[in-house]
Design goal:
This protein is an alpha/beta fold. The chain is built from eleven helices and eight strands.
Length: about 325
C-alpha cells in the first residue's frame, strides 16, 4: 500500500527517537506534555446553539492567522473520543495551518470539553447530524474561501459518515481523517484485548467522567449504567445505544460504521492510518478496496501509532505536515 504521495512532496514516515513502536508513538503526546502556543494568531470564542430543540450549544474557537493566505479555506478541526479543542493534536495542527495562512475553527463536540456544561446530550461516532447543523450555522463570511475539515479518531469516523451521507452535496472542498475507526465493532473488540487493557481502562474512565459531567441530563438508571460499565462495549450497550435509539451496541456499531458510507464520499478525502496503531486493526485499512472510490486518498505508513506520527526531521508531527499540504494541493 502507498506510504507517500509524490505530488505532496512529503517523505515517507520514519519514527523519531525515542518514539519507537506503535505504543510509544500513541503515548508521546501525553508523555511529552509539550505546550502549543497559538500566538500571535488571534482567537475568538464562538457559540453555536443547535437547532434541534435540545437547547444544546457547541463551543468553538475561531483563529485568524496573523498573515492570511489568499484563497485558503477555513479548516474545521474535530477531536476524538474524550478529547476537546485543547487536545494536543488539535493545537499542533492548528498552529501549522495558522502559520500557513489558514483560518482555523477548533470545535468541541456536543458534551465535550467546554461544551459539556452547555449540553444535556452527548456526542457519539454516528452523530453526523451535529456537524451538518454546525456547517449550516457558520456565517457566510466563514466560507468565502471554501471549507475543509480534519477529524481525528472518533471525530474522523463521524466526519467520514457525514461525507458519505452528503455525497456531492457537502460544502466541504477537502477533508482528512486520522486514525478513524472505520469499523466500530472490530475496533472496540480490539481495544478490549488484554494487550490494550491500560488504554481501555484509562479511556473508559474518561468516558464515564465526561458523560456524567456538568450539564449532562441523565436518569438515575442511565447514570448507574454508565458508572457500572466494565468495558467500552458495555458503556455503549447500556447507555449510548438505548439513549440514542440504536437499542444495542452491536446495532449502533453496524449502523454508524464509516465502512457503510465511504463508497459514497465525493469530497477529496485524505485517509491516514498507521500499520502499528494499537487501537485500530491494520487489516481494516489494508483490506479496503481503495480503487473503488477515487475521492479517497489512502496514506498508510507501517508506523505512527494512534494519532502519533512523530517523525524524524521535525518536531511537528508528520501527519500535520501531510494534511496541510493535502489541503493546499486539493
Amino acid at each position: 500500500m502507498q506510504t507517500s504521495i509524490p505530488s505532496l512532496e512529503v517523505p515517507s514516515f520514519r519514527p523519531r527517537f525515542p518514539w519507537w513502536g506503535g505504543d510509544l508513538q500513541t503515548m508521546a503526546n501525553r508523555l511529552r506534555r509539550a505546550a502549543v502556543d497559538l500566538a500571535p494568531h488571534a482567537g475568538e470564542r464562538l457559540h453555536f446553539p443547535l437547532a434541534d430543540g435540545t437547547g444544546d450549544t457547541l463551543l468553538a474557537t475561531l483563529h485568524r492567522p496573523a498573515m492570511a493566505k489568499a484563497g485558503a479555506p477555513l479548516v474545521l478541526l474535530i477531536h476524538g473520543l474524550t478529547g476537546s479543542e485543547d487536545s494536543h493534536y488539535i493545537l499542533s495542527q492548528a498552529r501549522l495551518l495558522l502559520d500557513r495562512g489558514h483560518r482555523v475553527l477548533r470545535l468541541n463536540l456536543r458534551g465535550a470539553g467546554p461544551s459539556r456544561a452547555l449540553c444535556a446530550g452527548h456526542y457519539y461516532a454516528g452523530r453526523s447530524q451535529d456537524f451538518r447543523m454546525l456547517l449550516s450555522l457558520l456565517p457566510a463570511e466563514f466560507a468565502r474561501d471554501g471549507l475543509a475539515a480534519v477529524g481525528y479518531s472518533l471525530g474522523g469516523a463521524m466526519l467520514l459518515k457525514y461525507l458519505g451521507e452528503e455525497g456531492g452535496s457537502s460544502p466541504l472542498k477537502a477533508a482528512a481523517s486520522v486514525c478513524a475507526p472505520i469499523d466500530l465493532a472490530i475496533t472496540c473488540r480490539n481495544m478490549m484485548r488484554p494487550r490494550n487493557r491500560i488504554y481501555h481502562h484509562h479511556l473508559l474512565g474518561q468516558m464515564k467522567s465526561e458523560a456524567t459531567g456538568e450539564g449532562a441530563v441523565l436518569s438515575a438508571a442511565e447514570r448507574e449504567a454508565i458508572m457500572s460499565s466494565r468495558t467500552v462495549w458495555e458503556y455503549d450497550d447500556a447507555f449510548i445505544a438505548p439513549h440514542y435509539g440504536f437499542g444495542s451496541a452491536e446495532n449502533y456499531y453496524e449502523r454508524c460504521k464509516p465502512l457503510r458510507f465511504m463508497t459514497d464520499i465525493r469530497v477529496p478525502t485524505l485517509m491516514l492510518a498507521a500499520g502499528n496503531d494499537p487501537w485500530i486493526p491494520d487489516n481494516l485499512y489494508r483490506g479496503y478496496d481503495w480503487a473503488a472510490n477515487k475521492a479517497l486518498v489512502p496514506l498508510l505508513p507501517v508506523s505512527g501509532g494512534h494519532v502519533g506520527f512523530h517523525g524524524a526531521g521535525s518536531d511537528q508531527p508528520w501527519s500535520d505536515i501531510v494534511i496541510a499540504r493535502f489541503l493546499e494541493h486539493g
